[in-house]
Structures are given as C-alpha cells and as structure tokens.
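Kindly review these tokens for lecture notes.

. . .
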Amino acid sequence: MDIKSPKVFETSDKAHADLFNDMVKVLLENDTGLLDQLGGHIDDTKPHASPEEKEKWNESQLYKITADDGKYLISVPVDKNIFMMRLKTKGPVLSLHPQV
C-alpha cells in the first residue's frame, strides 16, 4: 500500500502556504513511518512471547475465571462487584460468594 502525496497548497500568501505544506509533509512522513512499522509487524513471524513466558503468565492466575476456549467460568450478578467478592473453587468451575 502506497501513501500518495497531496497536491502542494499554493496561494498568494507564501508564508501560510508553506506552513500548511510543512504540516502536511510531517503528517505524510508520520504515515509513511507507521506504514513501514505495520508492514514489519505483519511480516514478523517470530512469536512475541516464548512458550515458557506464556506458561508463566497462564499459571500466575490465582483463580481460573475463563475456560481454555475463552468462555467464562463465572458470572457476576448485576448488583455485585467482582472486586468486592471472593472467588471460591468448586471443582472445575468457580462460584462467587460475597466477601465476609
């Protein structure tokens, strides 16, 4: 994908035209730089985290609140706040109990 440069802004007031053109030039340079970074990221085939790092992250959960397929294992009632509740393990799923 190429970024096309717009037509140069021309007016009888060269100072204002130059200000506008300089601003557009900076925006185009930023867009081109972002496009280069995005292309590099898309082409990057290396995983961003090693399997060991992923395992460490996954095991750092104190309570399993999501299933391995991404579905939720717990639900928080509308009138409750998850931060004010204790999670109690009950088999493979968790149940919520109000904090005592």
